[in-house]
Amino acid sequence: MPELIIDASVALKWFPLKGESSIEEALDIWDAIQLKKLKAYAPTFMLVEVANVLARKKKVETVVFRAVLNKLTDSEIVFINLNKADLRRLGSLMRRYGLTAYDAQYLLLARQLKCKLVSYDEELLKISDWVVRVKDLF
What we know:
Elements lengths: L2 E4 L1 H4 L11 H12 L4 E5 L1 H13 L4 H12 L4 E3 L3 H14 L3 H13 L2 E4 L2 H4 L5 E3 L5
Parallel strand pairs: 1-2, 1-4, 2-3, 4-5
Helix pairs in contact: 3-4, 5-6
């Protein structure tokens, strides 16, 4: 089964609000994960990142906020906690690629698990060795 890392930019497309683009291709990934045709991983921190966007940028109601986070935590995505050694590695990835600590977590997992990171984030997509666009998966 193919394996990949999912970032928050992809996860947020699974719960679109009005005016959202690229929904269908993102939902294809969601379906493949839930049908166990793809194995997806994400740092546990992705849930915090999604929560922040939902509450602060999209300003969704509490019931929607809870439903999205429950759906993610109940999904087939494997959430991985970073350990102390991982946190030490973040700095070098941040400096090497000019990433935030948030984005470096996804790249770190991709490198550790030797699989691609799927993203809509333009900064991450510049790292072509490890990061691919959603539309390039299928």
